[in-house]
Amino acid sequence: MDNPLVNAFFIGRALAEAIAKQTETALSDALSELGKFDAEQRERLRQFTEEVLEKARQEREASVQAQPASTSSYAPASAVDADLQTIIDDLRAEIAELRAELQRYRSRIQ
Question: How many domains does the chain have?
Fold first, then answer.
């Protein structure tokens, strides 16, 4: 029963099973690390978004406090419209920057 072909068969089968197990372990570890990386990036993006929103809130509050309390002063409609248009343009520029950053983030993930 010491047939070398039978021994080679069993050795080959054991080797194939060991390689399959190692490959499975390596693949699951790699996918786990990828999942961790994705979760960390999403958390960083969430924190960044919160920081931006908090800063915007603080600036808005500072702006409101800096405005005169009296509503009796009259500002021409054209000045108010120009200020509003400037704010809208600034917000659109920030949105474009955030979209570009989000696009870069998504392209790195894929």
Answer: 2
Burial per residue of 23-50, b for 16 or more beta-carbon CB atoms within 10 angstroms, e otherwise: eeeeeeeeeeeeeeeeeeeeeeeeeeee
> Within this chain, do residues 15 and 61 fall inside the same structural domain, yes or no?
yes
Mean pLDDT score of the chain = 86
Domain match, 61 and 31 both:
yes
**Residue 91 identity:** L
d(CA 86, CA 82): 6
Range of 92's domain? 76-110
Taking only the tens place, the pLDDT of each residue in 34-93 is: 999 999 999 999 999 999 999 998 988 888 887 765 554 555 666 667 788 888 888 999
Give the whole-angstrom CA distance, residue 36 versus residue 43.
10
